[in-house]
Design goal:
The complex is a heterodimer. Chain A is mostly beta strands. Chain A has no helices and eleven strands. In chain A, the strands form two sheets. In chain A, strands 2, 4, 5, 9, 10 and 11 form a six-stranded mixed β-sheet that branches. In chain A, strands 1-3-8-7-6 form a five-stranded antiparallel β-sheet, with no helix packed on it. In chain B, strand 5 and strand 6 form a beta hairpin. In chain B, 33% of the residues are buried. Classes of the chains: A mainly beta, B mainly beta.
Chain lengths: 112, 114
C-alpha cells in the first residue's frame, strides 16, 4: 500500500449504535499513526497519536488500535451520539520528518 | 479553539492578484505547516518549517511562496494563481517536526481563484 486508505467513505448510524472504521497505511518505515476528528466549519482536532504495535488508546467512548506489522488501525465509537458526527481522518508518518500522509477520511453521521 | 489562528477565513482573488494568507500560533510550538485540501482529495502537505527553517517543500509550484519570520507566524504568499488552486488551505503547528506529537490545526482559509 503506497497511500493511506480509509473505509468506509461515509457511514450513517443511529444514536446509540456502536461503530468502527478502518485506516490502512504502508507498514514499511512506520513511525506514527494519527487520528483526527474534523467537524464542519471547525479545525481538525487530534484524537490519538499511536506509535507502538499493539497499542490501544481510549478517550471517553472513542478508542483506537494499531497493527504496524500489517499496516492498519481501527477507530471504535461506542454508543454513538449526534455530536460524534464529523469526518474522521487518519494520517501516517513514515519517518521522523513529520510528513503526515492523510487518508480521505470517513464521514460519520449519527441520527438522533 | 485550537490556538492556531488563520486569516482571512475566506478569500476570492483574480489570477493576476497578489495576496497573502496568515497563520499565528502562541502554543510555543517550533514547527509550522501548510496543508491544502482540494475538493474530494485528502489533505496534502505543502511546506514544513522547523525552528523557522524550511525543511520540506512538497513539490509546490513557485506561485506559492511561504515565509516564516518567527516560530509563531507563518505566511503563504500567493501570486498569479490558477483556478485549480482554489481549495481550503490549512495551517498547523506541532512541538517540532521530528517528534510524533499531535498537530494543532487552524480553521483554514477557503480560497477561490477567479
Amino acid at each position: 500500500i503506497l497511500n493511506v486508505e480509509q473505509s468506509p467513505q461515509s457511514l450513517h448510524v443511529q444514536e446509540g449504535d456502536s461503530t468502527n472504521f478502518t485506516c490502512s497505511f504502508p507498514s514499511s518505515n512506520f513511525y506514527a499513526l494519527h487520528w483526527y476528528r474534523w467537524e464542519t466549519a471547525k479545525s481538525p482536532e487530534a484524537l490519538f497519536v499511536m506509535t507502538l504495535n499493539g497499542d490501544e488508546k481510549k478517550k471517553g467512548r472513542i478508542s483506537a488500535t494499531l497493527n504496524t506489522k500489517e499496516g492498519y488501525s481501527y477507530l471504535y465509537i461506542k454508543g454513538s451520539q449526534p455530536e460524534d458526527s464529523a469526518t474522521y481522518l487518519c494520517a501516517s508518518m513514515m519517518d521522523s520528518s513529520y510528513k503526515l500522509i492523510f487518508g480521505s477520511g470517513t464521514r460519520l453521521l449519527v441520527r438522533p | 479553539e485550537t490556538g492556531v489562528t488563520q486569516t482571512p477565513r475566506h478569500l476570492v482573488m483574480g489570477m493576476t492578484n497578489k495576496k497573502s494568507l496568515k497563520c499565528e500560533q502562541h502554543l510555543g510550538h517550533n514547527a509550522m505547516y501548510w496543508y491544502k485540501q482540494s475538493a474530494k482529495k485528502p489533505l496534502e502537505l505543502m511546506f514544513v518549517y522547523n525552528f523557522k527553517e524550511q525543511t520540506e517543500n512538497n513539490s509546490v509550484p513557485s506561485r506559492f511562496s511561504p515565509e516564516c519570520p518567527n516560530s509563531s507566524h507563518l505566511f503563504l504568499h500567493l501570486h498569479t494563481l490558477q483556478p485549480e488552486d482554489s481549495a481550503l488551505y490549512l495551517c498547523a503547528s506541532s512541538q517540532d517536526s521530528s517528534s510524533s506529537t499531535e498537530a494543532f490545526f487552524g480553521q483554514g482559509t477557503r480560497l477561490t481563484v477567479v
